Amino acid sequence: MSPRSSEFLKAAIRRLAAAEAAVKEDPSTALSAAYYAMLYGARAALSERDSSAKTHRGTWHEFRSAFVESGKIDAELAAEVQKIQPEREQADYDAWSAPIEEAQRAIDLGHRFLAAIEAMFA
Fold first, then answer.
1. What is the CA angle 109-4-57, rounded to 5?
2. What is the DSSP letter of 16?
3. Residue 110: which H helix or E strand, with range?
4. What is the domain-level CATH number for residue 19?
5. pLDDT tens, 43-65?
6. What's the maximum distance between 2 C-alpha atoms anywhere in the chain?
7. Dihedral sign (CA 14, 78, 74, 4)
């Protein structure tokens, strides 16, 4: 894995650990951190192809084109990951109090997603 991709993946792992640490005390922060872990995982994968995007939406579009449409990443998993973005936006911008179950679901999804990214480049 390239140094830049490795940086993104390490950031993803740190964010997921932060989400786990915050889930009981602040589920909204945990949900946000889990989303960012997945975003950084997608950016790590794109970096391996010397590709990037400036926005979240662009990152997910490029990720789908490069990895989901080719069958390298499960389409259902990628769709689940993208469904977290509106919840993250509510938590970050609308002061939405995420239920602990939603935050935990995002964390669990983050683990599955990062495992898929790591397996793709193992």
1. 50
2. H
3. helix 100-120
4. 1.20.120.330
5. 999 999 999 899 999 999 999 99
6. 40
7. negative
